[in-house]
Amino acid sequence: MDYFRAIVKSEEISERVFDLTGIIIHKLPSNYNAYFIRRKCLRQLKLDLNREMEFINEVTIANQKVYQIWEHRRQVIEELNDFKGEIEFLHKIFDEDNKNYHGWSYRVWLCDRFKIYDAELIDVQYYLDEDIGNNSAWNYRYFLLSKMPLDFNAELEYIKNAIRLKQDNEAAWNYLRGWFKMFKFKNDQENPYKTYVQFNLKDFNLLEFLNEVGLTNRFALSLKIQYLLQDGNYKDAIEICENLQNLDLIRIKYWQYMKNQIIGLIQ
Amino acid sequence: MKQLNRTQNEQNLVHSAITQIRKQYQNEQTEEVPKEIMENKYFTEYEQLNELELLTNKHIKYCTKKLLNIGYSIFYLDVGQPWCIYWPLNALSILQDDVSKYENQIIQYLEKCKIGGFTGGPNQFEHLAPTYSSLLSLFILSTPAALGLIDRQALEKFFWSVQDPTEKGSYLMHVNGEADIRAVYIVVIMVVILKLDPKLLDGCAEYIASCQTYEGGIGGVRYSEAHGGYTFCGYAALVCMKKADYIDQEKLMNWLVNRQMENEGGFNGRTNKVVDACYSFWQGAIFKLLIQSGYVDEQLMNVFELKNYIHMCQNASGGIFDKPSKSPDAYHTCYGLSGYSLADSNFQNPIYNIPNKCIEFVQNFFQ
């Protein structure tokens, strides 16, 4: 370590220093100083980037949640301008932790960088089939579909079936809800810089489906409130809030807040 | 503290016993506990739960030991040494321990990590994370000597050097490093309190808003999944700039309240993930930020359940862990206690996560 600190000070760029950063990173993969120097060496000495990818794969497999190694990967792939093997590598990562945040964030970058949306939509299906509650995979699906031409009615059927499979799956409910504009109380506004796509809830009839799922599912009830609000049926919306105050005790104050907001609309 | 080693199934039963009791109270408006519940074997355990309390003195002892560890055998945190000051120091200050006795030692140490921004340790490069933890530690000390260590001009220069060249309003954690919402948060709150060049804030609110996801929380970068830590960073930065309404706050709140977990009472960081005591702060503080921004006027989380969860995450000899069965560490102790304090008191500032009285001192110092 002390030797490395001396190198940091001297700003030396050489193969010797390059090798040393490799040793340091193996010992402490979050050592950002070492990556900074390593990338300088890579660029200035024009070292083999494919060999560097082997090094990165090795370090990442042993340390899957380190910011620095993922950023290093991103920069090297950017420079290589070739994503061969990357999807397979991510598959290995998600095999161990299918919600690895770094892995999914990197995948968003990779997909956007190489414009592989269509292929990715097929690939992400694997993760949803494996675990329908995998919110990282749902989030990725949303990203993909907001970048592609979309048959939203087909997508709605897909979501409904997913919910039927596991009715208390918050990930699927959030995904469903995410496609719609929600009712705005007087002091709220849409996010003007949002990157997500949104439709009007009233253009799609989901009420039958919500009733089918049941009257004790808090996600279904919460979405039903949105329909009632948009119809101006405040009385029934308040009733559901009261119902939820009994059903969903941990959020008792939130449902009281919703109820008060709706009462405010009547007055 | 009573040991409660329960399986998930038992946990559910305890919760349903608690649920029944509450329902009864609500319906009959009575304080008397019904007989059938009194006889439920889990009710006795619920009573025990109610007796749990914060092990203040044990935590003070634990944090004191951690704080004195500065610079020794902390290999894992070799590139984040100022965290070893901030986490225990902030915890001690929340526990109302007198932190002034550490002033000289901390200043001497941080001096070795200072360039303009701060470094992960002596002879390293500047990095935003240790800059954040170093500055907050100096703010907590709140003395002219501590604040005198801050070189605002050099700090401003460092902030300019980590502007993201590819994205307006975004910052890198260090030169040539990764960009995410943490970096924006750190730059924004430090520019505001230290009254640095407001041009550094250009585009930040717009960039943060573009990272709000369809779920309502905020992701680390655009299109990434909504996550407690990044949502805190993004929203705290917006509230700090008085631009909270750049995002859809109703959506944010809907996501946020659903992060509190029915069975455990603590928060998870993302949809369908498991509870972790550190989110008592990252998620919990957002409730306070929603009040500060004027969006709501009261605490909407379930404070009782959260506190119970933190009680259960205490190590008998001090320190807080992620969840029962794990070992305590300074990180979870700091954020567990921060969440605990923020839930129902106004001691801590929800943007900076240091005491409000220190914020006042710093603001006046840099008039």
UniProtKB/TrEMBL annotation, chain A:
Its EC number is 2.5.1.58, 2.5.1.59. This is Protein farnesyltransferase/geranylgeranyltransferase type-1 subunit alpha. It is an enzyme of class 2 (transferase). Keywords: Magnesium, Prenyltransferase, Repeat, Transferase. It comes from the Eukaryota. Its cofactor is Mg(2+). Belongs to the protein prenyltransferase subunit alpha family. It comes from Paramecium tetraurelia. One of its GO terms (cellular component) is protein farnesyltransferase complex. GO terms for molecular function: CAAX-protein geranylgeranyltransferase activity; protein farnesyltransferase activity. GO terms for biological process: peptide pheromone maturation. SUPFAM superfamilies: Protein prenylyltransferase. PANTHER family: PROTEIN FARNESYLTRANSFERASE ALPHA SUBUNIT/RAB GERANYLGERANYL TRANSFERASE ALPHA SUBUNIT, PROTEIN FARNESYLTRANSFERASE_GERANYLGERANYLTRANSFERASE TYPE-1 SUBUNIT ALPHA.
Automatic annotation (TrEMBL), chain B:
GO terms for molecular function: metal ion binding; protein prenyltransferase activity. The keyword Repeat applies. InterPro entries: PGGT1B-like (IPR045089), Prenyltrans (IPR001330), Terpenoid_cyclase/PrenylTrfase (IPR008930). Pfam families: Prenyltrans. The keyword Zinc applies. Belongs to the protein prenyltransferase subunit beta family. This is Prenyltransferase alpha-alpha toroid domain-containing protein.
